[in-house]
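Hello forum,

I keep getting stuck at the same step: I have a sequence, I want structure tokens, and every attempt I make locally crashes halfway through. Rather than fight my setup again tonight, could one of you with a working pipeline run this one for me? It's a single chain of 207 residues.
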Amino acid sequence: MFDNTIYNLIGMTYWLMAGERRMRFVFSERRAAQAAAHLLQLHGGTMNYMVLIKLLYLSDKEALIHTGQPITGDRMLSMDNGPVLSRVLDFINMGRPDDVTPWFEYISEPHAYEVSLIRAAETDELSAYELRVLDAVHETYGRMNKWALVRWTHTLPEWSDPAGSCFAIDPDDILRSAGKSQEEIERITRDAEEMWALHHLVRIATQ
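Reply #2:
Ran it on my machine without issues. Output:
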């Protein structure tokens, strides 16, 4: 008799083959933590957390445009103070859980609106290209104060004013604003969704 795992595998495989795709990415907390730790290390070990969130967002955006894959895979949101990464914002707002997760292996809880590096940044989850992106984003924007970054990110074409709420940022909009053709966007969507589905198939199979 088929168990629930087999039924789930069959259902997800059928869904993928049916072509019902949208652009979403596999979030990696460890990659997000290592990227944040690398930025903090470049910054002397401590940074305003709003600035850190913005630098991670801009790094994800840059990687998405040039490779079709963001660094963290986190969900992008428009909020009042500009674009943010959803899960990263949760780590900062909700604080350390009972069991230490990859984020809190590297990054402290916020104190006086700043977070600090707990230990030296490892980068084994990040490619040489991704490290160059993080370096370049920090070099360009890392010395801006948080309100200057908020004002600047309000000018980004993918951001829309949520008026106290929040809106999902569609990666399609980022790619389209960067001059990608519809054919390129469809290819990136297809690749991203196949990777997302494969990731979840593996998770289901190993439960």
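Residues 24-205 form one domain. If your local run keeps crashing, start a new thread with the error log.
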